[in-house]
Amino acid sequence: MALGKPKPHMNDAYDIRDYRKVMTEFGSMADFDRMLGEIKQRGMKLIVDLVVNHTSDEHAWFVESRKGADNPFSDYYIWRSGKQGKEPNNWVSLFSGSAWKKDPNRDEYYLHLFAEKQPDLNWDNPAVRNEVYDLMKFWLDKGIDGFRMDVIPLISKDPIFSDYGPSYNGRPESVYSAGPALHDYLQEMHRKVLSHYDVMTVGEGFGVTLEKTPLFVDERRHELDMVFHFELARLDRDGWRWKPWTLQEFKAVVAKFNRGLDRHCWQSPYLSNHDSPRPVSHFGDDSPRYREKSAKLLATFLLTSVGTPFLYQGDEIGMTNCPLNSIDDLDDIEARNLWKSEVETGSVTPDEFLFHLRKTSRDHSRNPMQWNASANAGFTDAAKPWFRVNPRYQEINAEADLNSKESIYFYYSRLIEFRKKNRAFIYGDYTDVDPDHPKIFAYLRDLENDRFLVVMNFSGDEVVYRLPEGLNTESMVFTNGTELRENEDSLRMVPWDARIYRLAK
Ligand code: TEU
Asked: Closest ligand 1 atom to the C-alpha of 204?
């Protein structure tokens, strides 16, 4: 593979040129079909990312659309005239700068909520919606098992395009995810496409609060099965800036979602994805001393959470954030644009910028997968991979984990098996028994006659934890270490200890 990103592909494949083709760099449709067949043969399922809020500006629809206001594709995108020689409104792009770009040919502006090369589709045009439904069927008819829908709450736009109002909270996604026809379109998509297939859907809930979640996922509404909410993954963030977080805040988010969603709504817990830092660096401790133990603690949390947990590639072996020494270490367009708008304008020093990005950068989850200890971590036999390999690959790689029964990888696989056997973790009630403890996270999972207590020490300190009144932890059923007791009712929790007890009911 060539070094550097081919074009298009300026936003890691979220700029699509052709919805029915595999990009040459990644192989061919025959490769895809073979992969799908092999996945099925192993009793697995495949979910595909559906990116239909926007396309690439190199997509044939946009190439036609920008030719003029009088062709069949003119209204496939969102075009507006300027206002007194300026952009149609004050909306900003999520990747910095205005969300409008003037096209010299049409002498109009097109909307791009993300990069300039990602024009937003005009979902108010029924022809666009039908194109999307057709391409969904194209993939569903191949036998895929569902979609992760990229920024799906952003598809409907208020055609008036007024400026942000006085109540604007500085978070553009809160405005962009509130389009007037959003739920009509999702219901239409369900009626025309999804209801005809036995598949699952999970929307990227960008801008979706707890209060709005049931609108998307309440099963009686027939829209999506799940949405990813951002509150936990962005607990320690203010935009691109990092801010300190506490365990109490972390627990409060988990409790809030468990309280706020009823049995008609299904949850989708996750700790990371391709837009986040690595969980062990984010919420655990990635130092050689505690990396394994804290990664296993985070696994324990994820796999004992309500709903359908999502695990991002590399996290199953405890991959860590990558050191970040200069802007040249960053590839992500979001970060590079921020550098231009924040650092090159003098608003922020390079050191300050890098300090925050070390914690928040999306690139941490995009470094090549670490397969083994050989050159380029076994990711490619080319001289250089497309993006730098994390220097810790000799210590942290899939082969090393497969060679040790005590590895993070095998801990995950045992936990997954344990979860499948114990439905209380999937369906059971959730009760935080000690929401105020600054280091210990302890909760109950209850279903019919089963009751489990999960106790985790989210810190590098040893904690003697006195169990809340009335709890009896006779039998420990899972742990990332060994059980230590001070006396009858107190547990000696070493740093990053995680345990699951079965409780008498
Ligand atoms: O992400 C949109 C999103 O919610 C944010 O992660 C966004 O990328 C940004 O961090 C806001 O500050 C989705 C995809 O997951 C992401 O990889 C794409 O870059 C983006 O849409 C555009 O397609």
From this structure: 4
Residue among 51, 221, 14 nearest 135 (CA): 51
332-381 pLDDT tens trace: 999 999 999 999 999 999 999 999 999 999 999 999 999 999 999 999 99
Residue bearing the CA closest to ligand 1, atom 12: 94
Rounded CA-CA distance 275/11 in Å is: 11
List the residue whose alpha carbon is closest to atom 11 of ligand 1: 94
Please report the beta strands in 188-334, taking only residues with DSSP state E, as ranges in sequence order.
200-204, 226-228, 237-238, 241-242
Q: Is the pLDDT confidence value at 142 over 90?
A: yes
Res 7 pLDDT > 70? no
In angstroms, what is the span from residue 320 Cα to ligand 1's centroid?
21
Q: Which one of 17, 94, 147, 177 would you pick to mutate in the ligand 1 pocket, going by the greatest count of ligand atoms within 8 A of its CB?
A: 94
Three-state SS at 114 = coil
pLDDT in tens, 201-250: 999 999 999 999 999 999 999 999 999 999 999 999 999 999 999 999 99
How far is the C-alpha of 205 from the C-alpha of 188, rounded, in Å? 19
Q: What is the pLDDT of residue 3?
A: 43
User: Which residue's CA is the closest to the ligand 1 atom numbered 1?
Assistant: 151
Is 54 in contact with 119 (CB distance < 8 Å)? yes
Ligand 1, atom 3: nearest CA belongs to which residue?
206
Contact in structure between 175 and 168 (CB atoms under 8 Å): yes
Locate 89 and state its tokens. 């409104």
Ligand 1 site residues, Cβ closer than 6 angstroms = 11, 14, 51, 94, 114, 150-151, 204, 206, 274-275, 334
- Token pair belonging to 129: 């919606």
Please give the pLDDT value at position 472.
78
Q: 82, 65, 204: which is closest to 121 by C-alpha?
A: 65
Task: Verify whether residue 249 is a known catalytic residue.
Answer: no
* CA separation for the pair 347, 449 (Å, rounded): 59
Ligand 1 centroid distance, CA of 155 (Å):
14
* Structure token digits, residue 349: 């020093």
- 204 annotated active-site: yes
Which residue is closest in CA terms to ligand 1's atom 2?
Answer: 151
pLDDT score recorded for residue 297? 98
Ligand 1 pocket test: pick from 51, 112, 150, 356 the residue with the most ligand atoms within 8 Å of its Cβ: 150
